[in-house]
Amino acid sequence: MTTSAILLIAISVITTGLVLGVIFSLVAAGVTIVYGSIWLPNAANGQFFLTAALICWSFATWLAVPIWVAALLTLAVSLPISYLLEATLIRRFYDVPDRNIAYFVVTLGVTQILSGIFSVTYGRWSDQFNLPPMIGGVTFIGPFPMTNNRIFVLAAATVLLALLFAMLRFHPYGRALRAVFQNREAAALRGVNVRAIYRLSFALGMLSIFAGGILYGMAYSFDLTVAWTMAVTAFAIMIVGGPGSVLGAVVVGMVFGFTQAGVSIFTNPTLATFSYLAAMLVILLIKPSGLFSR
Amino acid sequence: MTALFVARDLCKRFGGVHALRNVDVVQRAGETLGMIGPNGSGKTSFVNAVTGELSLDSGKVDFAARDITGLRPHKVAGAGLARTFQAVRLFSRLSVRANLETAMLALGDKAHRLDAAERADVLDWLELDSRLDAEAGSLTLFEQRRLELAVRLMLRPQLIMLDEPVGGLAPGEIRAMMQILNDLKARCSIFVIEHTMRVIRELADRVIVLITGEKVADGPPVEILKNQRVIEQYLGTAHA
Amino acid sequence: MKGFLGTAVRPQLLVLLVAGVALALLVSANRFFAFVVGITMISIMWAAGMNLLTGYTGLVSLAYAGIAGISAYGTVGLVMRFGWSFWLAMPVAATGAAVVGVLLGLPSLRLKGFYFALSSLVIQTVLSLGFVYFVNLTNGDTGISQIPPPDIPLAGASFHGAAFDLLLTCAAWLSLVAAWAVTHSPFGRRLVAIREDEVLAEAIGIDVMRNKMLVFFVGSLFAGVGGALYATYVGFASPRSFDLLSSLSIWLMVAFGGRGTLMGPIIGALVLAPIPFMLQQYDTLKDVIYGALIIAVIVLMPGGVYGALLTCFRKAPAIRRRLLKHGGIVANDGSLRRS
After folding, report:
1. What CATH number did the domain enclosing B128 receive?
2. What share of chain B is helix, strand, coil (3-state, %, to 5)?
3. Which residues of C touch A (CB under 8 A)?
4. Which among B91, B105, B135 is the nearest to C200, CB-wise?
């Protein structure tokens, strides 16, 4: 292979890896925050990821609003959805000792429902979905052309991740959240309204997942199967990175992003998903607390 | 008297924290040993390490002339060493009868099991025979603590390690429980963990003081009470 | 076994056998209904096995259908490629699948609750991918069709029609008897102890790991035998029949009917197994219905239908005594304390 071909492939993998990596990290961060605070393993995260992309597509296609409006509307829609789910399903288990398994099965149920609904609705209307680009045009990174749209997605996702980090670190809510992560009883004794934190975490987690879905839809065309792929990937990232660790979610998310990019160039992308499963199983069996556990 | 239980040089670290630091404990058959120390001093870690709940970093544990170091809890129980937990642990949703029957089944060897007369005797002594069909979780705390003892006795133990057996009981109940524990000595050796001297003083022949994972004193209660270091570091608060 | 044989002629078990045979004979004229009944019988067997894992031991195994699939493909392979009799192929394949079940479950024995469920989900996904990928063994997504029904030994004929339905009824009944025997044995008691409090169980001398391995093996046998019967009854085997949704629906039958009871899996199978058939053209509704039921079972009826019934009648002294006597029956959490 010529050097320019190698360079092209390398840059392609790096750029794709970056874009996928930040999106994976965003979604995984959302999943891990909710697990770390509420002890809720959200098996439906993939379906919510898809929901966000589909809702954004719907707004852009049917309401014919500019894509950025559709994106913001979609994010706004996540809030009542979060509230509804929290009030009906999630809240009742807050004081149950083994709630993580109950939540896991409940969210598997939610996955089934959403998957069924989508296959008779969106699934019938189209095989693939595309969101109109935010920014037109192409920028060249060396010999490699990258759409400005994808550069925007990369930038937006990075900014969102940075905001998430900053909030967890510096904002009072973020500090309260980390206190609840560590020790719920101790946090309650210090005056933290634990239930309010739970509600906020869930909303934040959903927001994160939705943001990931919207950005993914902007960067790539998608179909209904991304729900399953994303769910497996996000869970694997959470387990390997360490449940509750946002740092772990980002580091492992980036690694998986590059893995996905690399594997997709040379062979079947499903192999990448397979490798996440393998990694998750290995960590579960050897060090269940994950690589970046507290 | 022969050594029933010998723990030599037990060490266990959790990250940076030394839960157990070169702890040596010897208990002879028929002797009642007590262990006290402030909260977090390693008392429960000691029991957990000895009974296999917790893996030791180093050290050796012998029980009834058998090396039980590193054995899983069920094997330790099978060897004759039973333990109770700091917070009452029962099969709360099962009946009292079912709790006892489960313990009996645990010993695979049928010859080892208590016969009907022995069981009736235990239940009568612990005043549980009227509560056999009640759900274990519905019992009062005192009844539950007694049930815990009954369950352990189904295993024909030579030694029971009791982790804070009077925790949460009312003063009258504590007196009654101490009487029960004294009577228990006739059936098997006991090792009692408490964080107040009051209970230990009346029950134990010898007391071990554990502070931040280290054995600080080892002797009869009278001696311990006079030990300067122990008084300084600990007894001031523990005499409550 | 002496005690078991003495009480084996328990009224309920006999009634179930008679009811099952009557049902099979009743519908045999209408092949569609007979087919539904046949699948329900296999589901009862599957649910009985899943009940041992979930209801009695407290393990949510989402790899159950995958194990059934291994046995199904194994049986089909031995029968169609090597000409074995079904009655030789099925035990071999089912035992093989059970061994695989134990091996796969072994590393995750130490995992608790959610982590165990998650690792079982991963294993099921791997098995599903395997079924699709190893095309020369399984014919991949296309599936294997025209699977012959089990032969009638020494008769040179095969089980067809009503005879096959009766066979399935007997198989379902035998699996219920086996499950009953297990749960009323010392082993069954130990499983309940493990479910209720694993740490305490181990502290009083129960070898938790060994008992979990054993229940994995036994549960997987139920899965495997059911899988072999399923493939030969339907005449077709594909990865789709043994996927995550299949595991979830078997779990749902147990959870819906009532975990840790004898009647629970039966109720669950009777209600849920016919659903895909009743839905015919509204096939995709199945996902939504199952999803809703899964949520409903966790949120509304932790004790399942049977548990809910018991709660309604819990004041009746006979029921109270029954609930407490063996300690193996789980009504709604804390329902006995609420009056």
Report:
1. 3.40.50.300
2. 40, 25, 35
3. 60, 107-108, 111, 113-115, 117-119, 122-123, 125-126, 129, 245, 248, 251, 284-288, 290-295, 298-299
4. B91
Are B and C neighbours with ≥3 CB pairs closer than 8 A?
yes
The pTM of the full predicted model, rounded to 2 decimals, is 0.87
C135 exposed, middle or buried (CB, 10 Å; 0-12, 13-18, 19+)? Answer: exposed
Strand B159-163 with B189-194, pairing:
parallel
Whether B53 sits inside 8 A of C197 (CB atoms) is no
Q: Report the alpha-carbon distance of residue B23 to residue B11 in Å, rounded.
A: 7
**Dihedral angle of Cα C51, C55, C61, C64, to the nearest 10 degrees:** 0
Q: Domain A3-286 falls in which CATH fold?
A: ABC transporter involved in vitamin B12 uptake, BtuC (1.10.3470)
pLDDT in tens, B83-93: 999 999 999 98
Decide if B152 and C189 are in contact by the 8 Å CB cutoff.
no
Place of tokens 């000409």: C83
The crossing angle, in degrees rounded to 10, of helices C161-183 and C31-51 is: 20
Cα dihedral B197, B201, B202, B203 sign:
positive
Tokens 């998750």, residue located? A280
Indicate the domain borders of chain C.
2-243
Which B positions 83-102 lie with beta carbon below 8 A of chain C? Answer: 83, 85, 89-95, 97-98, 101-102
Q: How many separate domains does chain B show? A: 1
pLDDT in tens, C38-51: 999 999 999 999 99
The residue behind tokens 């932790």 is: C302
What's the domain range around B28? 3-238
- For chain C, what is the largest distance between any 2 Cα atoms, rounded to a whole number of angstroms? 62
Model confidence at C338, pLDDT cuts 50, 70, 90, reads very low
Cβ proximity of C117 and C102 under 8 Å? no
Beta bridge partners of B160: B82, B190
